[in-house]
Amino acid sequence: MSEFNMNVPETGSLHPLVEPEWLEKHLDDPDLRIVDATVQVKLWPFPHVRSGRRGFKRGHIPGATFADLLKISDPQRPSYTFTMPTAERFADHMGRLGIGNGTRVVLYDGRENMWAARLWWMLRTFGFDDAAVLNGGWKAWRLEDRPVSSKPCEYPATRFTPHVRPELIVGKEEVLTAIEDPTTCIVNALGRRQHRGERKEYGGRGHIPGAKNVTAWEILDRKTMRYRPAEELRELFRPMLEAERVITYCGGGIASSSDAFILHLLGHPNVAVYDGGLIEWSADRSLPLELGE
Q1: Which of 156, 189, 210, 283 is the most exposed place for a label (fewest CB within 10 A)?
Q2: pLDDT tens digits, residue range 41-51?
Q3: Under which EC number(s) is this enzyme classified (predicted)?
Q4: Stated pTM of the model
């Protein structure tokens, strides 16, 4: 963790990335909220998502509660897009989870950290900075044989006051403008085959013109699910770190939040997530897609 920029702007008393050993020492901190944000996804032969609550009930980090992103996200959009809800809806869900002024939050998931990163980005978008992603999530926690509980946990409800940062989320019009903007770098967090157009998983083949490709999987050590060392990540994201502004995208706002989270950790001050992603982009036949690298 110390390899990353410690002077990240707009953060509270928690560094945005915490290690399992730190969390185990702080499980009993009265102001700490531990949140499992897991969503289970199956893409083939068609997208299918379901809550990770069942796995959470079988076992979770002691004291953790569960955040259901299927319910928190915008109910007016298809559930597999996970687009941003209204500030009021988000505040209501966070308050019922016990997240508000005077609390700190550690987020984790049982997948590739991207669900935790998504909720982290949502919290930041709505003005809450004292949140962190657990490096390696549930996988690293279990590999290191740390304590596990199946006991239900609920934190006292509180008031979450949103302060929206609209610049952290963009729509398709801003992405279309960014294609011709030399100061903005677009990065696709999806897999290589989807990027090149060899697979069609989100309604269209290929990538948004000019987009670079750093997948949300290559930023991880696949054995531990911890993020790769900072120097390796800086090399992967070098074109983005040199750009004035970065827009990340994926299929529906999840993997792109993982790339955005890492760019924030590396100190980039101007990163946004394209919330609608390739699902929205592909649905508009007037919008361009490129094949190849």
Answers
A1: 156
A2: 876 666 678 89
A3: 2.8.1.-
A4: 0.94
